[in-house]
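User: What would this chain look like folded?
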Amino acid sequence: MLSILWDQQGIIYCQLLPDNTTINGDVYCSQIEKMANQYHIVRPEFDRIILLHDNARRHTALKTRKKKLVN
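Assistant: Here's the prediction, encoded as structure tokens.
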């Protein structure tokens, strides 16, 4: 599975995941952290990131909510 995170200007981060990988809170938080690091390299003119989420479990998981508050 290919997981892609993007903004209005294009792709910021993509990761090819092994077959049968479930994107849970742990995997999602890891991807968000990697994307944030890459974002500051690719888009240095922007100083903050705003994420738009739906109510999928990986977005509403306690670990994900805590991660969003810390960063």
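The chain has a mean pLDDT of 80. If you want, I can go into more detail on any region.
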